[in-house]
Design brief:
The chain is an alpha+beta fold and about 160 residues long. The chain contains 3 helices and 6 strands, in the order αβββαβαββ. It has one domain (about 5-25, about 40-155): 2-Layer Sandwich (Herpes Virus-1), CATH 3.30.40. The strands form 2 sheets. The protein has a 3-stranded antiparallel β-sheet with strand order 1-5-6, with no helix packed on it. Strands 3-2-4 form a 3-stranded antiparallel β-sheet. Strand 5 and strand 6 (about 130-135) form a beta hairpin. The radius of gyration is 16 Å and the shape is globular.
Length: about 160
């Protein structure tokens, strides 16, 4: 029931969606835009807790037609909903089919990087260009490449 990551959205498309949601345009923008939109904050806070379980997501999932950047733990979602066959996005509450469920490549890459972090680290800060860092009270996750992950290095 859980799709393969390659069956959903390309990483570049997921990154562009996140950048649009934050207000930074696309990752390829050069900053010479005529847009009147101003990004006030350097970082946008994102909670990585699953809206259903309350735990940090292990496998970030969402419905492909959704335009928001919110995700849920895909394994928890499928487990809770497979009996009822109700496939409703827990973020926007729209109804979809099982075929619309995908692994979100952007947030799944983040949750994979955070597997060695303590479960208490549940928030990240995302820049308008899509790069991110953990929002941690302590430095319990040294494996996070100096607490910063530049998306552009991996695209």
């Amino acid at each position: 029931m859980i799709p393969k990551e390659t069956e959903g959205e390309r990483f570049e498309d997921a990154l562009a969606r996140v950048c649009r949601c934050i207000g930074g345009g696309t990752a390829a923008d050069n900053g010479d835009s005529d847009s009147d939109l101003e990004v006030v904050a350097d970082f946008f806070g994102v909670n990585l807790r699953c809206p259903m379980s309350g735990s940090r997501m292990k496998m970030a999932g969402r419905f492909k037609p959704c335009v928001h950047m919110g995700c849920f733990d895909l394994e928890v979602f499928v487990e809770l909903n497979q009996r009822s066959r109700k496939w409703q996005c827990p973020i926007c509450l729209k109804n979809y089919t099982l075929d619309d469920i995908i692994i979100d490549p952007y947030f799944n890459r983040i949750t994979s990087k955070m597997r060695n972090c303590g479960e208490d680290i549940t928030e990240i800060e995302v820049k308008p260009d899509g790069s991110w860092r953990t929002k941690a009270k302590s430095f319990s996750c040294i494996e996070m490449e100096e607490f910063s992950f530049q998306i552009k290095e991996h695209t």
